[in-house]
Amino acid sequence: MSDAREATAQSVRALAAWAAATPPERLPAQILQRAARVLADDLSAIVGARDEPEVKAFHGKVLERAKHAEATVFRGGRPRTDRLSAAVANGLAGDWIELDEGYRQAPCHAGIYVVPALLADAEARNLTLAELLRALALGYEIVTRIARAWTPRELNQQSHGRYCAIGAAAAVSLSQRKSAVNLADAIGAAATLVGPSPRNHVVQGVLIRNAWPAWGAWSGMMAVEWVDCGIAGTPAALHDTYTTILGGEAHPERLAAGLGEQWGILDGYTKIYACCQHLHSAVEAAIDLRPRLLGEAALGDIERIEVETHPLALPLMNARPPTSLAAKFSMSHAMAAVLATGSGGADAFAAATLTEPAIARLRERVSVKPWQPELPAPHDRPARVTVGLRNGRTLSGECLSARGGPDRPLPPEVVLDKMDALAVPAYPKMRAVFTELLSLQPRRMQQGWREIVDEMCA
Q1: DSSP annotation string for 308-340
Q2: How distant is the alpha carbon of residue 15 from its chain centre?
Q3: 123: how many CB neighbours lie within 10 A of its CB?
Q4: Rounded to an integer, what distance in angstroms lies between the CA atom of residue 356 and that of residue 78?
Q5: How far is CA 232 from CA 163, 176, 183, 224, 236, in A?
Q6: Is residue 177 left, alpha or beta, with left meaning phi > 0 and alpha meaning psi from -120 to 50?
Q7: Rounded-to-integer distance, Cα 95 and Cα 41, Å
Q8: 42 close to 101: Cβ distance less than 8 angstroms
Q9: How far apart are CA 108 and CA 95, in angstroms?
Q10: Would residue 366 be called left, alpha or beta, if left means φ above 0 and alpha means ψ between -120 and 50 degrees?
């Protein structure tokens, strides 16, 4: 082994040994509460996508084949199927409306890589809520440490393909209380199951992108089963994949430094805008600017919309998005829709907005340029929106860091409000149940997840 490859393997083993040996009672209440919040946030996003035509069609196919009622496909009611199929079905829905939570320190949506597989495994085995939150928090930690441990050579691969299988494998291994060796072998196996996940697909609106977490859920769960059969990976596979093949710069010390002291889940963000997080500062700036704009001009008076922004957002330009996914990754659409509607929610990125004449006109007037000089975190994703009017006047607004991240956190009630909008119409009892789960009520912590789902779905 090279020194870097050996250091990676040793650090992965140390990370797995720590995670496998950490029981729920050793997790701080703050971490368990945040895990419950991630669960609520991502489950709401899953349910919220239930009526998207493609999601509905795939769920129908899955449920037609159902033979073993192990786990719920969260689309209203209690349709159940085998745990692998349920994880895939929920994984497909998880990122569809772009309201799942995300991780701030590196491009990574750790929650949606962990939650679909974990929900299915936990329900099939009736895991207690305490054990479910343990697996979620520790699985999230493993994924985010891996995301931080490699600096990509270039930003041409979307994070879902890089990490989704690892998140599922880690969560299910932890859920099933596998040994440290098994956990490390499953992570190593999952690292070889990464997909190319071309980043330009999100700008083009290629809908297969929304299936990458679904494929990752299946791959990660199968990695755990394969290890049980002696078909193991190796901890050194992370170096082989992310450095040797993908060309990333390795920082293996980040995999195991400060275990139990630094928690990735506290660096997550809650999304209140239904688009790529890289656009959120621009969306927020445009929302704040809109009342001043309409106070002295009409939308038809806008001649140009210039956005100064950070490097991650600069490539996200598509003046004619063909799908709602493309709209969610288009600065052109985000600025046009927000200024036209006053909203950054799901309605601003719905399919109907793609052909709205006023929005289409404004999309053609959007341009981007780099924010200079680049700023340090947490202001490393800023935006300044300048609107030029027909009379020569200009109006500007800026946002250095959008709401929802660890530097500008939103109260827990926001997640419950999202649940009201996205999931409660399908599951009227869900908010009441999660109000108790988020407070870590002792009775709930010892309750089985299958029993909790029974109650939510009643």
Answers
A1: EE-TTTTT---SS-SSHHHHHT-HHHHHHHHHH
A2: 22
A3: 23
A4: 37
A5: 18, 17, 10, 9, 12
A6: left
A7: 11
A8: yes
A9: 12
A10: beta
Tell me the C-alpha distance between 144 and 163, whole Å: 9
DSSP secondary structure letter of residue 41: H
Does the global pTM surpass 0.90?
Answer: yes
Distances (CA, A) of 54 to 97, 205, 327, 419, 424: 12, 14, 17, 22, 21
pLDDT, tens only, 6-33: 999 999 999 999 999 999 999 999 999 9
- What mean pLDDT comes out for the span 116-130? 98
At 372, list the tokens.
């200079």
Residue in the structure block whose two tokens are 């009520």: 441
- Residue 1 is predicted with a pLDDT of 61
| Average pLDDT score over residue span 245-250 | 94
Residue type, 223: A
Q: How far apart are CA 188 and CA 173, in angstroms?
A: 12
Instruction: Give the tokens for residue 333.
Output: 């659409």
Q: Which residues contact 450 (CB under 8 A, 6 or more apart)?
A: 122, 123, 124, 126
Query: pLDDT (tens digit, 9 = 90+) per residue, 394-445?
Result: 999 999 999 999 999 999 899 999 999 999 999 999 999 999 999 999 999 9
The whole-angstrom separation of Cα 342 and Cα 191 is 42
Compute the C-alpha angle 53/59/63, nearest 5°: 145
Going by pLDDT thresholds of 50, 70 and 90, the confidence category of residue 101 is very high
Averaged pLDDT score across all residues of the chain = 96
β-sheet bridge partners, residue 72? 80
pLDDT for the residue 412: 87
**pLDDT band per the 50, 70, 90 thresholds, residue 50:** very high
Rounded distance, CA 186 to CA 90, Å? Answer: 22
Q: Would you say 287 and 340 are in contact if contact means Cβ atoms under 8 Å apart?
A: no
User: Do 125 and 111 form a contact (C-beta atoms < 8 A)?
Assistant: no
Q: Which contiguous run of DSSP H or E holds residue 302? A: strand 302-309
User: Would you say 173 and 186 are in contact if contact means Cβ atoms under 8 Å apart?
Assistant: yes
Q: Which stretches of 79-234 are assigned E, i.e. beta strand?
A: 80-81, 102-103, 150-151
Q: How far apart are CA 63 and CA 189, in angstroms?
A: 29
Cα(102)–Cα(358) distance, rounded to whole angstroms? 31
Coil, helix or strand for 269? Answer: strand
Q: Minimal CA–CA distance to 14: which of 254, 225, 232, 205?
A: 254
| Look-up of token digits 């083993």 | 13
Give the residue carrying structure tokens 């496998």. 20
